[in-house]
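Q: Got a minute? One more chain.
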Amino acid sequence: MKKNDDLPIDDDALNEARQTFSEVEPKLHTFVLACKVKDIPKNGSRGKVIFCEHDEVAVYLIKGKVYAISNICPHQLSPLLSEGYINKDELTVACPLHGWTYRIDTGASVIGGGGVPTYAVKVIDDEVWIEDPAPRDLAPIWPDPLPDEPDSFD
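A: Always. Here it is, folded:
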């Protein structure tokens, strides 16, 4: 980097920044053994459920790549994303209950609300290792606004 002698350097601010960054602990990812690659349904036909301490994870094998997302749809906390409709071209999965749809690679919502956590994946030989899910608050996400209830069910 080129030094510009015309700019003053605030040594106190620089030292404070160095101190702050030296105290920050880097986030270390802990990985857990999920399964063997051969245990994941082929061609993205559906996901394989992995039970972790803090989440249920759906692991998919699509076009030769392994992905891991939460198996729990945030709509009604349904653990069914592994059984959802998978669009391999768009890398999406739709919850089989109400059709809320999420990107398998990012967890972003395509249809519905919220999003689902994704987890880093390492494939070593035939073993699939996933990032250990951290604890999180789970609460259903309801449509906003809620639909009006009918006056009668006739």
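A: Helices lie at 11-23.
Q: Perfect, thanks.
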